[in-house]
Specification:
The protein is an alpha+beta fold. It is built from three helices and eight strands. Strands 4, 5, 6, 7 and 8 form a five-stranded antiparallel β-sheet that branches. The mean pLDDT is 96.
Length: 132
């Protein structure tokens, strides 16, 4: 079965697993999905991720993070740029999610990075998703 949007599939799996309190979730591996997982880890939204080789495409196992009260750290995670309607922004046009408390994940020519890092590196790109 082929997926038309593997990034949206990854975000949906993370959203659903965190809502029911799962410890970890497995998603199909790709370079972009691995970049998104790295940004989520760097920004403190997930504990860690690791790549599992299954002889085919591979899997990413994402360990989800919860507060001391058991609430998921990821409140909302939503896809912005979709296969039918791509959204590109320059460094000045990148949104500030929740006034800077959230993060926008951007695919740039220098790899997948957060909106804060894009402003530091002075690059723009495709706005993949927002997390708060």
């Amino acid at each position: 079965m082929s997926l038309s949007d593997p990034i949206a599939d990854m975000l949906t799996r993370i959203r659903n697993a965190s809502r029911v309190g799962r410890e970890s979730v497995s998603v199909r591996a790709s370079k972009v999905c691995q970049g998104v997982a790295q940004v989520l880890k760097d920004e403190g939204y997930i504990v860690d991720y690791d790549r599992i080789d299954d002889g085919k495409q591979g899997l990413l196992r994402v360990a989800l993070k919860y507060t001391s009260e058991g609430e998921p750290v990821i409140g909302t995670i939503s896809r912005v740029s979709k296969p039918g309607c791509r959204v590109y922004n320059g460094k000045d046009g990148l949104p500030r999610v929740m006034g800077g408390l959230g993060v926008a994940i951007v695919s740039t020519s220098k790899g997948v990075m957060s909106d804060r890092k894009c402003r530091q590196e002075n690059v723009g790109g495709e706005l993949i998703c927002t997390v708060s």
